[in-house]
Structure formats: structure tokens, C-alpha cells
UniProtKB/TrEMBL annotation, chains A, B:
Subunit structure: Homodimer.
Taxonomic path: Bacteria, Pseudomonadati, Pseudomonadota, Gammaproteobacteria, Oceanospirillales
Source organism (scientific name): Oceanospirillum multiglobuliferum
UniProt cofactor(s): pyridoxal 5'-phosphate
Protein name: Aminotransferase class I/classII large domain-containing protein
GO molecular function, one term: pyridoxal phosphate binding
Keywords noted in UniProt: Aminotransferase, Pyridoxal phosphate, Transferase
GO biological process, one term: alpha-amino acid metabolic process
Amino acid sequence: MTPKLSRYATRLPSSPVREILSVSQQPGMISFAGGLPDASVMPTLPVSDSYANVMQYGTSDGEGILKQNLVKWLASEGFECSAEYVMITSGSQQGLDLVSRLLVDEGSEVIVEDPTYLAMLQLLKGLGAKLLPINLGENGVDLESLEQQLKNSQARMIYLIPTFQNPTGYCYTEAERIAVAELIDRYQVTLVEDDPYRVLNFDGVFTRPICHYLKTATWVYLGSFSKMLWPGLRTGFMVAHPALFPWLMRSKQAADLHSNRLGQAIIAEYLQQGLLADHVAKLQAHYKEKRDYMQTLLKTHLPATVRWRLPSGGMFFWLELDQDTRQVLVKGIESGVVVLPGTAFAVEKSADHTLRLSFSQMKPADMEEGIKRLAKVLAQLQA
Amino acid sequence: MTPKLSRYATRLPSSPVREILSVSQQPGMISFAGGLPDASVMPTLPVSDSYANVMQYGTSDGEGILKQNLVKWLASEGFECSAEYVMITSGSQQGLDLVSRLLVDEGSEVIVEDPTYLAMLQLLKGLGAKLLPINLGENGVDLESLEQQLKNSQARMIYLIPTFQNPTGYCYTEAERIAVAELIDRYQVTLVEDDPYRVLNFDGVFTRPICHYLKTATWVYLGSFSKMLWPGLRTGFMVAHPALFPWLMRSKQAADLHSNRLGQAIIAEYLQQGLLADHVAKLQAHYKEKRDYMQTLLKTHLPATVRWRLPSGGMFFWLELDQDTRQVLVKGIESGVVVLPGTAFAVEKSADHTLRLSFSQMKPADMEEGIKRLAKVLAQLQA
């Protein structure tokens, strides 16, 4: 029998990133495709006698000790909030799912950056959202197009990644953050601010969350421990406006009751021991070196017509080319290099001439070999 | 501002069980309300050098080593399946959410036992399902009403808990399992079989999954490690018919990318070390003693008019009374005893004269004191 599926199921696209993960793991393959943190700089797990105490069922919002430590850390990052409105999630992806289901019906309008995070596109398409793109180009976020979208729509939700955006690496300036917050307050739409890359700040740029500046609009702020500590623990978090928090609790209960407690206890222990600040400094130096080396390689090996903005943080270079890039994935794999064409992240604006390259995980020699292979593939496609 | 919410959000009921958890934790309160396993019989976590290897992002379907061990265990339980179609979930609650979203649209008909599992009712109501109840009474599952519902509806999904059902404790006989499977095959509806209590089999009754007997219908089988090992790790699993598995993968990616790997590695290690069989035997003896003691207390302290069937497994007694029980929760809390009225689990059939009592977690002295308090509350309400 063929099962009768829901409209959600039939609309839900599969993820190209996760599907090519297996290709990336073939011997000799060099992959710039994923957004994996470098396992060599993950700390060893802190030891504690308390872990045996978290084996029973727990509370839907998460471990109090983790929430308290998290609130302290967020305050040190310029974002004051109350532990009462913090929820621990199974990675920040789950937070995106929970909040989207609370706000989006079939046909609901949602404002998004164009291009934007792949798995959020996947989710919003599954839910049947009507996506209203705002341009994220070389001059930053297009405030005029944002205001037009807000004025001309009934959007319930705006989804932004203001800090080291995925895929473009763009980081909103202070002035942009304030201007965006003012527009959101004026038009009363719920802001969903996704902030997984915050700690990977190489050049000390301004990163205060847009949620901090909102006066009347409702909002959800999402963060992750995956990029700073251990993604395998699947522990992320949300902070929500008080009007939204009780709904998130119900949605979390129905989704998985609560997040795994051992992961929460381990991260709480790490924060409690005061180890995070030094570790973040180490991460910043480590990834900055990778970014700088990638930039050198791109300048050395790619044609002078390829353009990019040096990302001040995060994990990605976003390249704009004079040639069509849609065949780079298939042709690249034949040559032992995996690169994601920008089309994977496109909402409406063409991304046919763009590529996203991750620099987060690779050894220098592999990175060099990979960029050389990419240069050859581009030359072949050009010919 | 008041956020504009989705229809899912506005339909989603809150969970009375989770809301009274805080009441249950007040000093002196004796609670029969939850379904918590007894922490005193949870094993210590197995030690392994391999845990550092699961700190990176993982695969959406879960750890191979856990899936292989799981398939071996399921085969020993009379259910042959392939690791290829096993997915590890963030507790079996997540499996229910993933599969329901794949099958249920607003207005979709779903066949369920009446009464049934509270959090699944919550979820299906949130999704806007039209629930078609089949009676689960003193004589077991009502096959005639099942066939009527199948014949007269366009149901896409049937949700059953055939083994130590929550809340009634009922366990389908072999003949009932075969008859139900034949009907499901005949009417081609997807079976969602929820089986969290399987190992808590006190009297050696027949428990082979109904999914085993299906010939042509599609199905999803859900299981949990929460009742046999550590609920705090939030590690459950699904086995799916090949036609459904790829859709579950997409849905899992959009929901949380993958489940926490440390929990998976710990459980895999426990299974790999061959420790499960002895532990299950210990659990069965432990909970059987509690069940038998509860039965003695019920016979001793409650009026002779209260009726129940001795549950051959699971965690609950389901009591039928000659009096209205809807005030028992509120009045009980005033007297220091928390008991769930059956109405919380009702679909359509009245459950105004029923109560669910958990016997899984309590010390004998507390259990006795709690049943005495309950007897008093019932007498007061009667008067």
C-alpha cells in the first residue's frame, strides 16, 4: 500500500546538505559543503558526580542550573533576559521548528533574508508558508525592501540571522540592528532571531541581538551550544517574549516532552566551572587562522573575477562569480571536491552565480588541495 | 503586542499531567498521577572510552551501533526488522510527533483507542485531526466498532497501544492482535503502534507487536528506552515500513537534525555489554511486587464497588467507580494525594467514573498512606 501523506509531508523538501554528507565521507573527498565545527578544538567533557541525578524525566523547559548559567552568559554578551523565559531545546533547529509551528499556517506570510539558512527554508516550505524575501547583498540588509514587505503584507513572522549570516557571512551593523528593530516594532511582527555563530567573532565586530532593541513587538531569540561546545549533545536554547513562552511550552511537550538532561548537565557543569570564556578565545583564534588562510588560497588560486566579502565571523565564505555555478556540485564530486552552489539557499533572487564554502573543519593542506581542485572545476565548466 | 498564532497553537491543549508535576513535588504530597519509572532501579551508566567520539554532528537516523543492537533485541522479542528502517528519536514522544505530522492534515480522520495516551491526544488535537474512537473496555478491544470505523471513514492512521495500554493497562491477546492486523490490511490504513511498556511484563503474557502480522498495510512501530533504562537521556526509536521511512528522515531533519549522540552511545554500550536481559528480569520482579502490593491496598481500603482488572504489565491501575471522579484531582490535592481522573484520557466515551493510578515509583509506606487518603477523599465526595 502507498500511505496517504499530509500536505506537510508532500511539501517538505529533502536537505541537499545532509544527503551529500555520505558523499563527503568518501576517501579522498575534500568537502567545503557542511557547516561542521572542528572536532579538534572541542573540549573534553567535564567530570561531575551530579550526572547520575539527571536520569529521571525532567521539566519541559530544561535544567534550572543550565538556564541560570546561560542567562549570565547572555547578559555578558549584552542581552539581558530572565531564566523564566529560557527554554532548552534539542539543538536550535528544534527551536526553529517549535516557533514556526506556533506562528505559521498554510499560506502565512513569513519575511526572510534572501539567501537564508537551508534547513529553515525546508521547514517553512513544509509548513506551506509564503516566503517574502528581503535582499541581503553587498551593501547589507535592504531596509527599504524590508519596510515594503512589512507594509504590504500580513506577515506574522520575520526570520533573521543578523550575526555572521548563513550563507553570506554578513553581520548587521549596530545602525542596521537599531533600524530593523524600529521597523519590526512599528509593524508589529514577531521576530525570530537565529544566532548560532555569535561566539565565532574574529574581528571584534558589534553583535548585540536585535531582540535587545525591541520595545513592543514579540520575539524569540535562538542560540546553540553546537558551534562553541559539542554538537553531538544536541543542546540549544530559546529565549522568548513572555507572551510567546507558554505556547512554546505546550509545543515542546507535544514534540518531545523535554530535551536530554545529560547533555544539559554537562554543559551546565562546563559553564559553572567558568571554562567558557577561555575556550571561546581559543575558538576565535583557531577559526580566524582558518578564515585567513582560506582567503589567501582563494586569492591565489581562483580567477580575479571571483568576488567576496571577508566574513568577520562564522564558518562560511560566500563567493560571487561571473559564471553559472549550478553544475559545481556534480562536477566537483567527480574531481574530489564538494562545494555547495548558492541556489540551495536562494528564496527568490537568483543565486546561480554564487557558492558557499565552509572553512571551519579542514586541515590547511586539504584546504589548499580542495581550492586547487575547485579552481580546475570552475575552469572546466567555463570552457 | 499579541502575537498572531497558528491554528496548531490555538488548538494545542496544555498537558494536565505536566502541569500538576509541580504540585506533586510539594512536601508531603503522595502522587499516583505520573508515569515515572522508579529511579532506584535505574542502572549506573556504563563506562566507555568511545563517548568522546560522538561529540560531532551525527546522522539523522541515529548511531549505527545502537540500531544494530536494537534490531537484535527486537528479534529476540519476536519482531524481525532491518536496521535500515530504524530511526533513533528524542524519546518516543518525538516519534509520535514526526509520524503524526506526516499523516495528519487538519480534518484528517484518525482511529484511536478510547481512552488513550494523553500526550498523543494533545498532539492530534493540535494537528486538527478528527478522532474516531474504538472502545477499549472490560472485554478488550471492540473489533466490531473497529471494523465500522475503518469501513465508514477515510482514516489515514490508526493509533494503538496494544501492550499494557496507557491508561487502561490492557494487553491485547494473540487472537486480538491477529484480528486487528487482518482488518488493518483489509482497509489499508497506516498503523502507528506505540509500545513503551513492553519490558514491564509481569505475568509472561503474549506481546508480539501487531506490526509483525501486517502483510500489506504500512506501519510505524515506536519504542522507548525510558521505561527500561534512563528517561533523562530522551532516547526512543521508531521502526518504519520502507514506504514511510524516507519521509520520516526528512521530517526528522527539519525537526532537530538528529538525536543526542551521547545518550545513544551510552545505551548502545549497555546493550553491547549484554546487560539488558538481567536488568529486565530485575525490573519485572521489582514492578510486579509494587503492582501486587497496590492491588492488596486497593482491596483493603477502597469500597467493594470499585472495579479493576489486574494489569499484567505496565505502570497503571485503571479503576471504575460507582461515583463521579472528576473532583478527585482537586479534592485529593487538598488531602495530600494526587490522582488523575480518567476524563484526561477520554476521547468520546465518558470516563467520568474512572481513575488512573500509577504504582511505579512509590515506596510501600507512601503507597499505603496514599490509598488511605484516596479512600477518604472518595468517601467525602460521595457524601
